Amino acid sequence: MAVGGAYGPDVAADEFYAKAAGSPHSTPASGISTICQEPDQGPHGGFPFVHSDKSYGSRAAESFVSPGGGIVDRVQWWGAYMSPSLAVCAPNADDFTLTVYADAGGVPGPVVSTNNIGGSASSVSTGQFIVFVGIKFVEYTYATELLQPFPADAGATYWVEIVRDAYDVDGCSWWWETAPQGTNGDGVANWDQGHGTGYRMSWFDLAMCVRIAPDCNRNGIADNVDISSGVSSDCNETGIPDACETIGDYDGDGEVNLDDHGQWEACMTGPDAGSYALFCQPFDLAADDDVDLMDFAGFQALFGCP
User: Fold this and answer.
1) Total count of domains within the chain
2) Are residues 200 and 92 in the same domain?
3) pLDDT, tens digit (0-9, with 9 covering 90-100), for 94-137
4) pLDDT at 215
5) Do residue 271 and residue 187 come from a single domain?
6) What pLDDT sits at residue 224?
């Protein structure tokens, strides 16, 4: 059944262009950013959810703006299941495909990542319900690591399309939950209802989170993967590849060694002694605007890295 008509406005006619914006949640220790538009189980733009299921020939996509360069490697989303008779149903199987597109003037453009994840996404009932035409549908949340993580350019807009590919014999289909605009939304999604009209801008956001992991050396691999796989060293266990850090490395050769130690005395100011020469900044390990014995203790811990 196509949503529209008696069940809400015809969003295919509600077109406008806007870019997603807002400040992401972040984890300072790891540098990982998570951009979220979380659901509240209510209707938005007249819809609590929209179908994005192969059985309807439909698809939907939500946008996000990358706050800085990094690797998009994980997506979380929310939705529910409905039968053709508007009844609650349980799917025989899930088979999701996530496709990420670059922005092309407010609509999905060139493909940057294709992820045929099948039924490997985690799927958990949240214990909440989405109410539609007086019926309570069980809300599920899903999450997956991308099979094709991709580098996102700072300030660039991307579209994440999520479609359920599985056909159920009883017609049970998947519906992507809408979300309040919040900090990171723009009140706009793209929805192809399967009528042959293609994507149309629609007046709602879709519930989704994307994770962006830092890639300080720009090798196309998230820093945490760089380190865990042994591609990069992390001698001081900061979660940042040693090649990207300058703390303690006076001469910038990627090592903390006797060459750096030889410059320490010239940079030593003592506690609360005021500013130091700009080239001495790698020795201010405590970031307290002086170079003293507290910094030297940290320097000793780094000595020999990587």
Assistant:
1) 2
2) yes
3) 899 999 999 999 999 999 999 999 888 989 999 999 999 999 99
4) 80
5) no
6) 78
Inform me whether the pLDDT recorded for 301 exceeds 50. yes
User: Could you tell me if 270 and 192 lie in one domain?
Assistant: no
Both 120 and 268 in a single domain? Answer: no
DSSP-derived secondary structure for the chain: --S-GGGS--GGG---------PPEEETTTTEEEEEE---SS-BTTBSEEE-BGGGT-EEEEEEE-SSSEEEEEEEEEEEEE-TTS-B---S---EEEEEEEESSSSEEEEEEEEEEET-SEEEEEEEEEEETTEEEEEEEEEEEEEEEEEEPTT-EEEEEEEE-PPPTT--EEEEEEE--TTT--S-EEEE-SSSS--EEESSEE-EEEEEE--TT-SSS-HHHHHHTTSS--TT-SSS-GGG--TT-TT-SS--SHHHHTTHHHH---TT-----GGGGGG-TT-SSS--HHHHHHHHHHTT--
**Which of 157, 191, 213 is where one domain is finished?**
213
